[in-house]
Records
---
Amino acid sequence: MKEVQLIAKLADLQEVDYHNTLVLHALIELLIEKGLLTHEELTTKVHALDSQLSFQIDLASKLSETIHNRQVQIKPIL
């Protein structure tokens, strides 16, 4: 029963993802058609945001690893 529910939830997520992607694509096309945005500007912004997010993920991962390593080194007082 849980497996069926999980499959149904995944199908729902795929449908939502498809819908969101479609809406996003339509918005981008409208912005470009109206001259408010160029494909190059969009691409540049996507790359900049991707770099920032990658940096933040790497930083969070390193901080998490550092905290974990320090916790392992701490010995309980008996």
Note: The CA atoms of residues 28 and 51 lie 21 Å apart.
---
Amino acid sequence: MDPELGRRLVAAGWFLHGVWDLAHLLLARLCGVVARTFAEWCAVVDVLLAVELVVLR
């Protein structure tokens, strides 16, 4: 696999995981499966990692 393509696929995975964390954050009020602070923290970290992989490299 082309390294550039691989890096972008990993970045997409990190970004989508951040979206998944945001869904947990929004649903935490309804079902409370994940602590809100953990979902917030994880969403921010995931999106920042995705941005770093695409923009800063």
Note: The chain is about 80% helix and 0% strand.
---
Amino acid sequence: MTTGLPSTTVPSTAATPAPQVSLSADEARRIALRAQGLLGAPDRRAGVRGMLRQLGAVQLDTISVLARSHELVPFARLGPVGRQAVESAYWSDSHSFEYWSHAACVLPIEEWPHFAFRRRAFRDRGHRWHRMQDREGSCAAVRDRLRSEGPLTTAGLGGGRNGGEWWDWSESKIAVEWLLDIGEVVVTERRGWKRVYDLAERAVPEALFHDELDDHECLRRLVTQAGAALGVATRADLADYHRLKAEQVDAVLADTGLVPVEVQGWPRPGWADPAALESTPRGRHRTTLLSPFDSLIWDRPRTERLFGFIHRLEAYVPKPKRVHGYFAMPLLAGGKLVGRVDPAREGTTLVARQLSLESTKAVEPMARALGEAASWVGCDAVRVERCDPEELRPRLRTALDELGL
């Protein structure tokens, strides 16, 4: 998805230092799973907010099949958390905000100061996609409305479009999005999937409402956070997490405390969170379906490198050309990606429009994952339309029957 993020040029630093630690591919995979909250006992007391702090960013997307992606991410880690409880955890009591990170993401409110570099870059560039006919007047009108009336959606500000295509934004929509980009306005929640805007000075806690960190310090903190959320990563992985440039990562890596490592089979040097190297990843593996926008797998080259699993979102691929379906969700089981399913809902039936399994060992985990997902969204039956390989269908059906589905 194109976000129109501005670029910031940062000079590159010296060559990568020699690795201090050697990791096997399996060790790297397990470190990554633990860092993402998918290996070991989940911290249910910290809940959704704790998960958000651990990940540092949860991507938002319009597609809703089982649920929206920002709901699927905590479901994958914490189990069937109530969907309203998820929304409340994100959006109440100034615990988070929405901004441009990997894409449009929910971010912990503590990260507000760290995105000052991006807000400054927008200001320097002067626009994102659209230009206003009367910037000063339009922005002043939005500020005045928010100041006098409180948080508003685009509709409340006068409407988002001029009547044409989705990109044909109204002047008030361009203005409020520009004020969001530069940090004068913040998204405080999504209501019916519409952004709710408020003045940042009112919504962001006073202690965090500043742009005092220089670009180097912002980038250092974001790369450090990405390293902790990934566990072990290449430079490209670190850059992708918050959509930074390679030279931006290079400029701060030496100051992050991340440890240079060598990972068996990786063609590029790696960097590990030092805390991730202190103990061997142990504990229960989560069996679950993953949103294609889950931060464990949103970076497709990294997913292939870690799991030997090629996955592509096909929602925007013409239907006849799709291989695995509109919103194929990978199945995580035993710390590996062992299948995928393209789900839908018909009343109280979860429909697996297209399902694929890597081996017979994936049958029972797929049945359990489908059962948990069905129960979470209020379904009491599962119907499988296409199964690949077809010869595994009877085993899968038996496993689903045993679960009462």
Note: The CA atoms of residues 1 and 103 lie 7 Å apart.
---
Amino acid sequence: MRKVPIVLIFLLILITGCMNAQEDNITVNVIGNPDANEILSLDSDANIFMFRDLIYKTGIDWVDELVLTPNEEIGEIKNQTSIAEDFVNGTSNVLPVGTKIYSSKEQKDILLVEIDGAILKYYALVEG
């Protein structure tokens, strides 16, 4: 008869201990669009700019193969920096200040920039 309460107490302690251990091992994954810091830490030579709170990157093979037509001017590069933490809308790490940004007639997730007569295609880097 005395063994039943002792066994119950032991089980309660064991269950409580396991519950606390599980709570301590919870991992939270934050999902969101990549920022300049993340992109530049993965590829320090990446050619990127930030526009409308998204990072756009050029030099992506499948994007470069697309035939795209510039549509309308939608913005321009206002800042240039290699410091990822200083990126705000209109900032690039390579493009010079004053570079015009154009939408593409064919793709909404690709923006176009003309530099020295060449059209560069920048793809919006978004999560999932």
Note: DSSP finds three helices and eight strands in the chain.
